[in-house]
Write a sequence for this structure.
């Protein structure tokens, strides 16, 4: 899994039939301290995430194991919206302070 911030949306008028109805979001990956890593992904949204929210993204075959993405051709899925995370007992991120 990777941590990331939702930074955008993807709209496609022509899409694989099994992907219809799945919202696609651009996710900017961050490291454990919340700093952008430079890597990005387009991820299927299984959680109803919004712009600016911190999320957990599963990739590879794990991305096809959510209810929303089962048997669909995706390799990245937002499978959680992050409320908070801490490193060494220090809070790095809290949703209420950020969104």
């Amino acid at each position: 899994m990777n941590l990331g911030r939702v930074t955008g949306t993807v709209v496609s008028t022509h899409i694989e039939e099994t992907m219809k109805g799945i919202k696609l979001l651009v996710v900017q990956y961050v490291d454990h301290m919340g700093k952008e890593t430079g890597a990005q992904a387009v991820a299927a949204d299984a959680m109803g995430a919004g712009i600016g929210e911190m999320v957990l993204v599963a990739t590879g075959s794990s991305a096809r194991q959510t209810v929303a993405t089962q048997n669909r051709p995706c390799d990245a899925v937002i499978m959680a919206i992050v409320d908070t995370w801490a490193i060494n007992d220090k809070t790095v991120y809290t949703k209420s302070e950020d969104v």
About this structure: Residues 23 and 45 are 5 Å apart (CA to CA). Residues 2-98 form a domain with the OB fold (Dihydrolipoamide Acetyltransferase, E2P) fold (CATH 2.40.50.220). The first helix runs from residue 95 to 98.
